[in-house]
Predict the 3D structure of the following.
Amino acid sequence: MYRSGTLPEVTLKWAQTIDGQLADDSDQSQWISGIEERRYTHLLRSTHQAVLVGAQTFLKDLCQLTVRDIDYDELQPARVIIDPRGRVLAALKDNPHLIISLQMGPRRTYLLTDILEDFEDIDEKFDSTKLIRISYRFNDFRQWLMGGLRQLSLVIETAENRRLNFLMVEGGATTLSEFLKAGLADRLEVAISPLILGGSRHRVSSGSLLKNVDRFDVESKEQLGADILLRYKVRKATSLKRVMI
Ligand SMILES: NC(=O)c1ccc[n+]([C@@H]2O[C@H](COP(=O)([O-])OP(=O)(O)OC[C@H]3O[C@@H](n4cnc5c(N)ncnc54)[C@H](OP(=O)(O)O)[C@@H]3O)[C@@H](O)[C@H]2O)c1
């Protein structure tokens, strides 16, 4: 067994254009993929105990991260937002209605942040049955991410008596790239939509040169409407790196 008991198995899931963009550079796009692929995303959420997005995705899309429009909508994941520099907390100050979005959905939302202090008057507005702030500090971002995931596992287990075995990370490109660079990806689910956007932002990167880059084995492929879904598994050599961190 290579896995430390407290880190969940992580699936990175995203939709991209043929040329690898997750969104357009103007930040005006919302859906890259079609309805069938989005319905599949809901199904995939129902097989994970928690679904995570970055602060920027939450603030721009106000995504619900719930399971909807499918038969298994009783299997709802917890929602996790990573907010390392307190960007969501700061936005709550000027936009109190965001609290409603944060506390929406049938399960708790966990806000993982580097901010340790009480935040203005915001914390007292949180309903702890709906929203839990996990404050965690570390100088290095990757260590922060790993420590934060361990904290998250513990808190979910304590607050909900539910083990976090499977975590799904849905974006954006910055967050997905950080998970890859930290060696925290076990599986990739990548939908390719028949579009070419151009642009240079919103691209997933491992930050490695070709000679060092991790490789993934294709598990399966499937056509979902106009989109093609590719499922990859990380090679064991990459997983082994995690034991040594
Ligand atoms: N096609 C898809 O599947 C898909 C899925 C989800 C989202 N999206 C799109 O993606 C866009 C948002 O993605 P994004 O990449 O801009 O943002 P993001 O991944 O949603 O959020 C990035 C967050 O992580 C923090 N962060 C990341 N790396 C860090 C580091 N090394 N040190 C400190 N903080 C770090 C940033 O902090 P700071 O804010 O403090 O810089 C930021 O809050 C939206 O347009 C959304 O619609 C597309």
Q: What stands out?
A: The chain has one domain: 9-244. Strands lie at 9-17, 50-54, 78-83, 109-113, 131-135, 166-169, 187-193, 216-224, 227-234. The longest strand covers residues 9-17.
